[in-house]
Design a protein that fits this description.
Layout: H1 2-20, H2 35-40, H3 48-79, H4 82-115, H5 118-148
């Protein structure tokens, strides 16, 4: 239940983000609006047939992103870098949740269009478009997880250690051997 609430917050943040800024997308042919333009376009301005077509395309794009991010997780797992793996896993979980919401919204969109429920179809279409925009952003973040969070070691690294003078001598991991002192145990009884 908490995941659903979190995803609703994420979708709401996506709406606010979509209103504030539109990410730069490569130009598409005039017959196909860009993903950003489709997301910012009012759902009421899109004919029902195009809503169905665009939402299906958006869900397919999100599935491709899911495969891509899953590849990033596998790459992090192969390199055995826990920081990268945790970061990419977080993005993967978010993409999975948004994809699940989008798939359900696409089905609801198809039902709403079939019943000619305009407001429901507009709502479901908007959910899919916002989710696609957020998933595209998560893909970029997953790529950053793999590229920028990697820890590199420099072979020319030199470390100088100063040992304080007041430390006891010797290696603490190797205690000195005890002197060979034989101690007889006390007699078991007072009789000799």
């Amino acid at each position: 239940m908490r995941t659903v609430g979190t995803l609703v917050v994420v979708l709401a943040a996506g709406v606010a983000l979509a209103q504030v800024q539109a990410p730069a997308q490569p130009a598409n042919p005039p017959s196909q609006p860009s993903a950003a333009a489709a997301a910012l376009e009012k759902a009421s301005d899109v004919p029902d047939a195009q809503k169905l077509e665009r939402s299906a395309q958006a869900v397919n794009v999100m599935r491709d992103v899911l495969r891509n991010v899953l590849g990033k997780v596998e790459e992090a797992r192969r390199t055995k870098d826990v920081v990268k793996l945790n970061c990419a896993n977080e993005k993967l979980t978010q993409v999975k949740g948004l994809l699940r919401i989008s798939e359900n919204a696409e089905v609801s969109l198809q039902e709403a269009v079939a019943r000619k429920e305009t407001s429901t179809s507009e709502h479901e279409y908007t959910k899919v478009m916002i989710a696609q925009q957020k998933v595209t952003q998560l893909r970029a973040e997953a790529e950053e997880c793999i590229g920028q969070l990697a820890f590199r070691t420099d072979e020319n690294l030199f470390v100088e250690v100063e040992e304080p003078e007041n430390l006891p001598g010797g290696d603490p991991t190797r205690p000195p051997s005890p002197d060979d002192v034989v101690v007889r145990p006390p007699p078991a009884s007072p009789i000799r």
